[in-house]
């Protein structure tokens, strides 16, 4: 835990007991304030030490770990006498809350809430043998059915993500385009038929960024702070980063292309690799920050990094480094995100905040946040980057070549940079849409209650 981010952290006097595998286990509960909000932290006293593993995800017993957490969270609400209007769960790790709430906790008196479930990436569904449901007290016989939690492609397995879609009152994902894509056989990862059946309660709301944290005029990681009204500081950051990474600074008008990503197939790894070499051919510079959990991809990019180890125009840094990432956003002229699919994507929003013009593939949230400067069907005020449709080298080349061409017309490029920096990608719009959903759902529940 990042204790420095939590104010007034203290343990509650009472422990919360929760059932699991037919036994009662104690949970120590801590409370504190994070960014002005009260937050509860559950410390399970379970012999398996579910959350003392040194990593959040990727354990063999993740299904058990997160179903235990979901039980304990609901037990805390019940025992503390909380009466929430909305319980909002995210991703398969807390998807258990929806069936647990209706099957076990509403009958025990925790019955005031509507359940909202948000999936950030439908690739991750958490499926497991149906028998594992019994650990958290759910009835596998009742729930392992096609209209409930049974996985759509394996009848002896349950799918927590599907369970949340079935049992929640509101289901959302992180962009309108992604919400359409996952309702197709190609994009739905096996869950599309369920989403289509429940389409009336499913929609996409574009994510936002924390515009206070991501702000080039106050970002202390940068060499020089700057704003849309004063772009000189952006040039100074570019010069400074070139020196830091040992890149040539012979020509100030050489465009710098940035890329910050996890190197996984979803992110269009083959196109990122191509972009490195294409940038060099077109007389630009390229900086990549990121690493891969996939061994053969990590090895491949280590090979490219070694190839360009002392090159004056290319640098690959294969790790995660937040301070360097902010520096790259500030220093780069263009920012590339050639994803195969992208539920929302935040890097393109952050890049624009720092005056780096995005080059993206038209998919998911990228399609909802980046509009091509040459697209006459889009009002001019919304055009803010370069897009391509097909996930191949030809499509990427076209977008990159148009970006490099505009970069050479200095005044037009400066206007575009100022435009993208002034776009508001803050959370306010997303938050107001969620608030509206909450209010409507609660109102419907009360109206239904008054009729019975």
TrEMBL record:
The keyword 4Fe-4S does not apply. The keyword Lipid metabolism does not apply. GO terms for cellular component: amyloplast; chloroplast. Pathway: Glycan biosynthesis; starch biosynthesis. It is an enzyme of class 2 (transferase). Residues 8-196 form the Starch synthase catalytic domain. Keywords: Amyloplast, Chloroplast, Glycosyltransferase, Plastid, Starch biosynthesis, Transferase, Transit peptide. Gene3D superfamilies: Glycogen Phosphorylase B. Residues 251-417 form the Glycosyl transferase family domain. It holds the Pfam family Glyco_transf_5. Its EC number is 2.4.1.-. It catalyses: [(1->4)-alpha-D-glucosyl](n) + ADP-alpha-D-glucose = [(1->4)-alpha-D-glucosyl](n+1) + ADP + H(+). It is found in: Plastid, Chloroplast; Plastid, Amyloplast. SUPFAM superfamilies: UDP-Glycosyltransferase/glycogen phosphorylase. One of its GO terms (biological process) is starch biosynthetic process. CDD domains: GT5_Glycogen_synthase_DULL1-like. One of its GO terms (molecular function) is alpha-1,4-glucan glucosyltransferase (UDP-glucose donor) activity. HAMAP family: Glycogen_synth. Belongs to the glycosyltransferase 1 family. Bacterial/plant glycogen synthase subfamily. This is Starch synthase, chloroplastic/amyloplastic. It comes from Hibiscus syriacus.
């Amino acid at each position: 835990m990042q204790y420095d981010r939590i104010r007034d952290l203290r343990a509650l006097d009472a422990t919360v007991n929760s059932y699991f595998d037919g036994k009662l286990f104690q949970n120590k509960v801590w409370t504190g304030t994070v960014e002005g909000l009260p937050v509860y932290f559950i410390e399970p006293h379970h012999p398996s030490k579910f959350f003392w593993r040194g990593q959040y995800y990727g354990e063999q017993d993740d299904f058990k770990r997160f179903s235990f957490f979901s039980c304990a969270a609901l037990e805390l609400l019940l025992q503390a006498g909380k009466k929430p209007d909305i319980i909002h769960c995210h991703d398969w790790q807390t998807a258990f809350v929806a069936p647990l709430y209706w099957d076990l906790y509403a009958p025990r008196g925790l019955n005031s809430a509507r359940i909202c479930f948000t999936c950030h990436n439908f690739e991750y569904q958490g499926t497991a043998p149906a028998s594992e449901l019994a650990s958290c007290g759910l009835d596998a016989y009742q729930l392992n059915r096609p209209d409930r939690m049974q996985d759509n492609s394996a009848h002896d397995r349950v799918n927590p993500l599907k369970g949340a879609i079935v049992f929640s009152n509101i289901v959302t994902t992180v962009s309108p385009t992604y919400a359409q894509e996952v309702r197709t056989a190609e994009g739905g990862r096996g869950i599309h038929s369920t989403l289509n059946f429940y389409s009336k309660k499913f929609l996409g709301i574009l994510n936002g960024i924390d515009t206070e944290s991501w702000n080039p005029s106050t970002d202390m990681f940068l060499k020089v702070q700057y704003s849309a009204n004063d772009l000189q500081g952006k040039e100074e950051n570019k010069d400074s980063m070139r020196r830091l990474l040992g890149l040539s600074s012979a020509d100030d008008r050489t465009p710098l292309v940035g890329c910050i990503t996890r190197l996984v197939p979803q992110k269009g790894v083959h196109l990122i690799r191509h972009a490195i070499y294409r940038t060099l051919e077109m007389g630009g510079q390229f900086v990549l920050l990121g690493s891969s959990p996939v061994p053969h991809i990590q090895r491949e990019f280590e090979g490219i990094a070694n190839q360009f180890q002392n090159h004056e125009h290319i640098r690959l840094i294969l790790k995660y480094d937040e301070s360097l990432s902010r520096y790259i956003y500030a220093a780069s002229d263009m920012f590339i995100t050639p994803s195969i699919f992208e539920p929302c994507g935040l890097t393109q929003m952050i890049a624009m905040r720092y005056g780096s013009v995005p080059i993206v593939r038209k998919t998911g949230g990228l399609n909802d946040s980046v509009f091509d400067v040459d697209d006459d069907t889009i009002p001019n005020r919304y055009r803010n980057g370069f897009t391509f449709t097909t996930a191949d080298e030809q499509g990427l080349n076209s977008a990159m070549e148009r970006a490099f061409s505009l970069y050479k017309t200095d005044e037009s490029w400066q206007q575009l940079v100022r435009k993208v920096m002034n776009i508001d990608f803050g959370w306010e719009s997303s938050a107001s849409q969620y608030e509206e959903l909450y209010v409507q759902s609660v109102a419907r529940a009360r109206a239904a209650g008054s009729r019975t």
